[in-house]
Design a protein that fits this description.
The chain is α+β, with helices and mostly antiparallel strands. The chain has one domain. Helix content is 15%, strand content 49%. It has a four-stranded antiparallel β-sheet with strand order 1-4-5-6, with helices on one face. A hairpin with a 3-residue loop joins strand 2 and strand 3.
Length: 85
Amino acid sequence: MPDRITRSSVTFLHPFSLANIGEQPAGTYTIETVEELLPLSFVAYRRVSTTIELPAVGTVAFQRQIVAVDPAEILDAQAKDGKTK
């Protein structure tokens, strides 16, 4: 059975920062999570990767870069963004 891929959008109202990408401007970002099916007697998946799509710096506006991120870090950044006034 193929991997399961989940895409979602996250909107930040303020600039945010993650460990391996530095500060990013406010906006809507695409998050993609890839999970693999585990060989068990019941259906279970294990997360293989989580990435965020960022605008590519210093290039044409239509290009993007994909960077691996920690999902917990995205949740923390969202929580901080909601508390920022």
